[in-house]
Protein 1
Amino acid sequence: MRPLIAGNWKMNKLSADAALLAGGLADRRGRQGDPGCEILLCPPSVLLTGVAAALVDSAIALGAQDCHPAESGAHTGDISAALLADAGCAYVIVGHSERRTDHGETDALVKAKAEAALRHGLVAIVCVGETLDQRDGGRALEVVSRQIEGSLPDGASAGNIVIAYEPVWAIGTGRTPTPDQIAEVHAHIRGALGGLDDGAGVRILYGGSMKPDNAREILAIAHVNGGLIGGASLAVDDFWSICEAVA
Ligand code: PGA
C-alpha cells in the first residue's frame, strides 16, 4: 500500500507564506520526483483556493481540517464537504483531538462528518488517540477501540478512509511514544478494521511530534502507513525530509 504523508497546518500561515510553502513543496516534488508516498497538504480553509492554485500539476493533494455534517444551510461559520470538494480537496481530516477538545466533538459527530465527506467523494482521515491519563491508566487500546467503533462512517473501506492514530500527549509536545507502544496500537487498530471491506488495505497514519529525525524509525514500524504531521509540516525542508523517510 502506498504510504500517505499529510501536513496538518492547523491555524498557521497567512496567504503569502502558504503560497511559498505549497509552491516550494510542489517545486521539490517536481525536481526530485516521487519520494515513494502520496503527499497531502491540509491548510486552513480560507487558504484552500490559494494553495490549490500553487499545487496545480504538482502530484500533491489538497485536504481540509474539518467539515460540517450537513449538506448546506443555516450553519454560520461552518464549511460543508461539498464546499471542500468544490475547492479542490480530495481529503478532509475529521475528529482531530484539538476539535474533540476545543469544540466538544463526540464520536457520533465525527462519524456524521466522515459520512458527509464520503458522500462528496472525499477521503476522511479519522483521528483517534488517548490522553496521558488514559494511557497511564492502561486504557489506551480500549479508548482507541471505542473511538474507532463510534467514529467510522458506514461504508468505510480502504478507498474512502484513513485512520490517524495521534496520542493526545504527543501532539505538539516533542514527546513520542516508544516504537513498541506505536506498534501495539497500530496492530490493535489493524485488528479493529478487520470487519471492514478491505480493512487490511486501510492506511493507518501515526501523528504526534513526528519530525525529520524520528520519522524514519516511526515509518518503519509495522502497520504505520504514513504520518499526520503538524509542526514539522510548516517548513519545506522538514516536511520533504519526512516524505523521503518513507523509503
Ligand atoms: P504535531 O501535530 O506534529 O505538531 O505534534 C500533529 C497533529 O496534531 O496532527
Protein 2
Amino acid sequence: MARRFPRHLRRRIVDLRGVWDFRLDGDPPDVMAVPGCWDATPRYAGRRGVGVYRRELLLTDGTPHRLVLDGVQHACRVLLDGEEIGSHDGGFTRFAVDVPRSGVLEVHVDNRDGASPLHRDFYDWHHYGGIARGAELHRLGPAWIDDVRVTTVAVDPVPVVDLAIDLGGGPAPLTVRLGGVELRRDRAGGTVRERLELPGLARWSLREPHLHPLEARFGEDDWRERVGLRVVATDGDRLTINGEPVRLLGVNRHDSHPDHGFALPDDHRLADLQLVERLGANFVRGGHYPQDETFLELCDERGIAVWSEATAWQPDARQLGDESWLRAAERNIDEMVAVARNHPSVVLWGLLNEGRSDDAACRPGYERLIGRLRALDPSRPVTYAGNHTEHDVCEDLVDVVGVNTYPGWYHDEIADVGAVLDRLVAHVDPSKPVIVSEIGAEGVRGWRDAARDRWSEEHQSDLLDAAIRHVLADGSRFTGIAIWVFADFRTSNAMPRVLGRPRNYNQKGVVDEYRRPKLATDTVARAFRASR
Ligand code: ADA
C-alpha cells in the first residue's frame, strides 16, 4: 500500500492499483478499479455475489514473491492460472499470499451475507464488496524482513523499547538505525530481539506527537517504521499517556463513503481528519473494524488517539460459542494487531461491540479473545463498548470500560441524559477509566424543526450539547466521549431495522455522508473546544 511513510524503499514492489478485468457472477466481462467496491458503482449498486478480479502477474526472477492485499471485502480465494494459492476471510485487514511463478492472477471476492462470519447483514452498516484497500506484488529476494515490532516499554527516565525483527531467508547482514543512531550491525537470521535504551529521543503525546524513523536493512531488503515513544496506561479511573492523564474527546467513524464504499481515497481520509480536528476532537474510535494504515499514520503525526477495534457487531452466545466464528475473530485480531501495533496513535484495543457481556455463557468467548489481544500486545489497555453496563459480567476482563447509551433517542429524553449517564457510571468499577463510547441521535440534514423533535438537526444538536457538557463537567467520572457518529453512513437493508433508517442511512452523523455540516457540527465544536 502507498503509505505516508513508505515501509520499503529498497524492496522491489509492483503497485497493483489500477483497473483490473472484472466479472460479477454470470454478468458479461467488465472492468473494476482496485482499490474499489463494485457495489458503490452505478452499474453494480447493491449487488451481492462473487466478483472475479483478474490481471497478469510477472515475476522478475525466481526468488520468493508475495501478493499483499490490505483489505478484501469480505472473503476471497486467490488463484494463479486457475490453481488456488490462497484464501482469506474478513475484510479490513492485510494478508499475504506467496506467489510461486508468473501467471494470470484471479481474486474471487464474495460479498454475500455469511461469506464471512464476521460480516453479516444484520449489522448496522452496509457491507460493500471488493478489493477495497491496497494491492501489491513484493519481490522478497534471497533474504527479507517479514515483520518489525517496536514496543515502548518505558519513557522515564529514558525511553526504552523492545524491538523484534522476523527475518526470512538469509542469514545476511543486518543493520538497524533509529532516530539516526545505528543500533545494530551484524549477520543475522530467524528472529532478532533487543531491548534498547534511547536517551535523548523526544516522546510522543497527543499535544507533541514526535516520531522517529526506524530503518532495518537485511541483505538487499529494508523495512521502515516511524516510532512514537509513549506508554499508555491506566491510573485509577484515569487513562494516561506517559503518566499524564488524558481526556479523549472524539467521534466514532465508519471508514465508508457513498461514492467509494470502503475504498476511500487518501484525500477523503485526510479530509475526514481535518474535519475531526475542526471539531476540536483528539480521538477517533474506528467502529467497528480495523482501520486503514494510512489513516493510522495520519493520526500518528497529528496526535489523534485511536481506539482500534476488531470486527464484530452485537455478538451473542451463538457466535461466541461457535468455534468457526471465534477462529475468524482471532484471525481478525491477529491481523489488526499486525497492522496497527507500531502506530503510537493506537491507544486502546477494542473488540466485541455491544456483545452480550451480560450473559455468563458469553464470558468464555470474551476471555478467549481478550486473552488473545493481551498475548499479542500487553502494552495497550483493552476495552469493549458495552450496552449492558448495569448487568455486565465481563467488565473485570478489561482495563477501560466503554458505555454505549442513547438517552434522548432510543429511550428517555434530552433532559434525562445526565441522570442516565450518572446511573450507568455508578455501575462501573470505580477503579477503572470509563468512556462514553457511543451516544447520539439521528439528525436529517436539512430537516429543521421549530418543535426541535426527533429526526431534526435541532434535536440532534441539543442532545449532543447536553451529553458533551455532562461528560466533560467538573468532577465527571468520564475520561472521554466518542459521539456516534462522525458522518452519516449507508447501512444494511435488514428488516425491520431499515424501517428506522430513512434512505437506508444511519443519520446520526455530525456531518452527512458527503461530510456536509449540520447544526450539530458547530455545536460539538463549541462544546469540545470549551473544555480543552
Ligand atoms: C449501536 C451500534 C452502532 C449503531 C448504533 C445506532 O450502538 O454499536 O453500530 O448501530 O447503535 O445507530 O443505533
